[in-house]
Amino acid sequence: MNLAIETKDLTKTYKTSSGPQSVVKNLDLQVERGEIFGFLGPNGAGKTTTIKILLGIIDSTSGEASVLGNPAGDIESHKKLSYLPEKPYYYEHMTGVEIMQFYASLFGIKDRDLCERLLNRVNLGNDMNRPISQYSKGMQQRIGLAQSLLNDPELLFLDEPTGGLDPIAHIEIRDLILKFRDEGRTVFISSHELSDVERICDRVAIINKGELVHQGRLDQLLSGGRIEITADNLTEEIANKFRGDDFTVSFKNGRLIADIPDSAHPGEMLDAIRAANGDIVSVIPRRKRLEDLFLESVAGDNVLKGRKMSKMTDDHNAAEAVEVTTEEGAN
Amino acid sequence: MGAILSIAKTTIGEAIRRRVLLVILLVGVLFLVIAPGLSVLSLRQNYTVLTSFTLGVIQLTSAVIAIVLTVYLLPNEVERRTIYTILSKPVYRWHFLLGKYLGAVGALGMMMLLMSTVLVLVFRIMQQQASMDDVLQLATAPIFFFVQMSLLAAVAMFFSTFVSPIVNFFLSGGVYLVGTLFSPVFQDLSNNQTLPAAVKGAATVIHSIVPNFAQYNIQGGIINQGPELRSIELYYVQIVVYALFYIAAFLIAGMMIFDRKEV
Ligand SMILES: Nc1ncnc2c1ncn2[C@@H]1O[C@H](COP(=O)(O)OP(=O)(O)OP(=O)(O)O)[C@@H](O)[C@H]1O
Ligand SMILES: [Mg+2]
Predict the structure, then answer these.
(1) Residue with the nearest Cα to atom 1 of ligand 1?
(2) Residue-range domain boundaries for chain B
(3) Contact (CB, 8 A) for A186 and A31
(4) DSSP structure class, residue B179
(5) Highest mean pLDDT among A267-271, A304-308, B100-104
(6) Any idea what DSSP says for residue A127?
(7) What are phi and psi of B134, to 5 degrees?
(8) What integer pLDDT is reported at residue A313 of this predicted model?
(9) DSSP 8-class letter at A131
(10) Distance (Å, whole) CA A295 – CA B50
(11) Residue whose C-alpha is closest to residue A35's, from A202, A148, A150
């Protein structure tokens, strides 16, 4: 298949004062043409580093990366791609339209009309003659998108395109990105806005500490939702009966809260509750959220252990909580 | 080519707005304007003293501007991440470096042109007795300062591909001082037959690596030139070719380092 981006065993190791540190480890990515690909991971996971390697701004230590069929960094590919860095900065002394003309000239384009059209497209038509120094963060982000369209790119790299934007600007940019896909472009987007990613991406990859944890179609990764059952007037006995591998069951003051996979037929549990004369308060099917997948992927980090622990308030979880603490102490 | 010129143009636009450079320029211009009024100089109304003082002001101001301007060009681009958007376009790194250099030289040229204009005006007004020929003669000196500063900017550009701006400031400044003050000394040493070979060799190496900045000080230096110098025009051509050669060498070396650099 003709992939827009493909990496094999991509590794980047920095020499630091505390020895060599791999910030990207044996990464295998496949990005198909025409899709919006979400590239996720916690701060410092290696997202920006990977993008820089794909653009040839830095070299990988080992492994392969190809972009639009050429090795990463190839100038021919650069004619057909564009990049919006995280927290970009533009020469402040220039006006919006001057910046656009500057970037256009790097492609050998001298078309002022095109620059103005693109500025209008991102709603900067009225501000194009103002210096960039007067632009708000949102306007700077939008001019970044406008410049990224100058060469009518097949592939766009957007590194946190909605970082620091208000909800309205957010939605605007999200819609723009969706239009990019309609126009047949491939979008490689790194973002911490999981709800956005969930809404617009076709496929995602989640990396943690430089390693790929998940990659695939979003609908497949998020299949397997869960069901939450809450019931009152029960005894601990019934709670114990259902505790198992994939069942999270808590019990306090006669109230049972069970979180079970939707593949485990809930009827059995509901019958048991009724048989024990319990009152069913609610049965809520919950689709797996990208957030769940994300947290699951990066679990094992101390931050998350803390987060997990704070959720465990019930008595019966105390043992588990202690376990986690010891584990953490051992680290 | 278009990309190189666009980058150069943008660099000029940014450089001529940099406050620190404008302040240095202003101080230089101020000295030029008050020079004729300075008591030490006006005491004897000595044309030669005034000439060398004002030319010295232009030279020093230009050298400081050349260094301060150039040492920050690449590091600033990296720090502000402007370089990423540029390098993700079909722009080679050497395009970028050359564009930055040409921009530095362009901005420097504009600032030096301003100072030279002030110089000529000051002499026209203050030294009514000076002929137009004298003034023209005077104005040729800054032209060769400009060649000298372009060379200095190339040195600073080269260093900026691998050292921090502050270190670069002292390195480039040091190379300039050595090349201005001691070049004739090293030249003499390397030609001196009575010296041990090792000393001669070392002098030759230094003399060929450190550019000879002294030869661009048309005022004093020219008198000391050897008998092989047939005409002043030939000398001018010679030192310009020398500068172009060294500029190319420093830029190419810089490009080679910059090409492998992680930005
Ligand atoms: N030049 C460098 N030398 C050493 N380590 C570096 C260098 N550049 C980046 N790193 C490290 O590489 C890791 C990955 O950084 P990167 O910027 O790729 O993360 P990221 O996933 O983009 O994070 P964020 O979401 O915060 O933007 C970080 O731990 C960072 O400290
Ligand atoms: Mg990042």
Answers:
(1) A14
(2) 2-259
(3) yes
(4) I
(5) B100-104
(6) G
(7) -60, -45
(8) 37
(9) B
(10) 75
(11) A202
C-alpha torsion B167→B172→B178→B179, nearest 10: 170
For chain A, percent of residues with pLDDT exceeding 70: 90
Got the DSSP string for A173-200? HHHHHHHHHHTT-EEEEE-S-HHHHHHH
**Interchain proximity B85–A103, CB inside 8 Å:** yes
Answer yes or no: is the C-beta of A91 below 6 A from any ligand 1 atom. Answer: no
CB-CB contact of A127 with A140 (8 Å): no
Say if residues A46 and A75 touch (Cβ distance below 8 Å): no
pTM of the predicted structure, to 2 decimals? 0.83
Report the residue from A59, A81, A85 with minimal CB separation from B85: A85
Type of residue at B132? M
Q: Tell me, using a 6 A CB cutoff, whether residue A38 lines ligand 1.
A: no
Taking each helix axis from N to C end, the angle separating B47-71 and B93-126, rounded to the nearest 10 degrees, works out to 160
The CA A210 to ligand 1 mean position distance, Å, reads: 10
Contact B57, B144 (CB under 8 A): no
Q: Are strands A3-16 and A62-67 parallel, antiparallel or unpaired?
A: antiparallel
CA distance A9 to B245: 44
CB atoms within 10 A of CB A44: 12
The 10s digit of each residue's pLDDT in B49-95 is 788 888 999 999 999 999 999 999 999 999 888 999 999 999 999 99
Token code pair at residue A239: 């709670």
| 8 Å CB contact of A75 and B6 | no
Q: What is the pLDDT of residue B206?
A: 83
Tracing tokens 């999270």 back to the chain, one arrives at A248
A12 band by pLDDT with thresholds 50, 70 and 90: very high
Residue found under tokens 């869960």:
A226
A81-84 vs A155-159, strand pairing mode: parallel
Q: pLDDT digit string (tens) for B23-35?
A: 999 999 999 998 8
Per CB-CB distance under 8 Å, the chain B contacts of A108 are: 2-3
Residue B26, both tokens: 């202003």
Residue A210 beta carbon below 6 angstroms from any ligand 1 atom: no
Tell me the residue type at A59: D
- Minimum mean pLDDT among A102-116, A317-331, B30-44, B219-233: which range? A317-331
With beta carbons less than 8 A apart as the criterion, state whether B108 and B8 touch. Answer: no
Cβ separation of B80 and A89 shorter than 8 Å? yes
